[in-house]
Design brief:
It comes from Beggiatoa leptomitoformis. Keywords: Copper, Disulfide bond, Membrane, Metal-binding, Transmembrane, Transmembrane helix. This is Redoxin domain-containing protein. Belongs to the SCO1/2 family. One of its GO terms (molecular function) is metal ion binding. This protein is α+β, with helices and mostly antiparallel strands and about 200 residues long. It has two domains: about 1-35; about 45-195, Glutaredoxin (3-Layer(aba) Sandwich), CATH 3.40.30.10. It is about 40% helix and about 20% strand. It is built from five helices and nine strands, in the order αβββαβαβαββββα. The protein has helices spanning about 10-35, 75-90, 115-125, 135-145, 185-195, and strands spanning about 45-50, 55, 65-70, 100-105, 130, 150, 160, 165-170, 175-180. Strands 2-1-5-4-3-8-9 form a seven-stranded mixed sheet. Strands 6-7 form a two-stranded antiparallel ribbon. Strand 4, helix 3 and strand 5 (about 130) form a beta-alpha-beta unit. The N and C termini lie far apart (about 75 Å). Bound molecules: copper (II) ion. Copper (II) ion binds near residues 69, 70, 76, 77 and 162. Copper (II) ion (CU) binds near residues 69 and 70.
């Protein structure tokens, strides 16, 4: 059959069916991608600096400000932790104990529980440091849509590339917002205050 021959009624119907089913197939494929993609965040368990197992759900009722970092980080981590201390201080006194800062080390080999505890206390005695095996920490990072990478060793030792955002988790344990590093303090304070009930 010449390809320019007009389609007869039967062929036309078959063609229409074909197009219809092809769209249906595409629709279901796309839908399954978007609907089944698990939302970022969720519960996880790691170990605190007292050696106790801690789960995110232990902080139900609290707004959690989650960050990933490591103690020998020259800039991002100390700046973030200083900023978080200021954020908490900027909240009304009655709201401050409704917010928990969790700092997960991505360098558990060098960041021992004791070093982590001492380091965080420098910023605030209320900041919670969490550790685990590299694999456990990688899983939490993956769950939160991020990762980290050990950079080649230099004379100063190795550095770790890690997420710089602040992960904001509401009082039901749901990841509700990612704030980029450097977000003005007022914006963070306002957003966090809005989550406190
Ligand atoms: Cu850092």
């Amino acid at each position: 059959m010449n390809k320019f021959t007009p389609l007869d009624a039967h062929e036309e119907k078959t063609m229409q069916h074909f197009i219809f089913y092809r769209w249906c197939f595409l629709y279901f494929c796309l839908q399954s991608i978007f609907v089944t993609a698990a939302p970022l965040g969720g519960n996880f368990s790691l170990t605190n600096t007292e050696g106790k197992s801690v789960a995110l759900q232990d902080y139900a009722g609290q707004v959690v400000l989650l960050t990933f970092g490591f103690l020998s980080c020259p800039d991002i981590c100390p700046t973030t932790l200083t900023e978080l201390k200021q954020v908490i201080n900027a909240l009304p006194a009655t709201q401050r104990d409704k917010v928990t800062v969790l700092f997960i080390t991505v360098d558990p080999e060098r960041d021992t529980a004791e070093k982590l505890k001492t380091y965080l206390q420098y910023f605030s005695p209320n900041f919670v440091g969490l550790r685990g095996s590299v694999a456990e920490i990688r899983n939490v990072c993956k769950q939160y849509g991020t990762s980290f990478r050990y950079l080649p060793k230099t004379e100063q030792g190795y550095s770790v590339e890690h997420a710089s955002q602040l992960f904001i988790i509401d009082s039901t344990g749901k990841l509700v917002r990612l704030m980029p590093y450097g977000t003005p303090r007022e914006i963070v304070v306002q957003y966090v205050a809005g989550l406190i009930h």
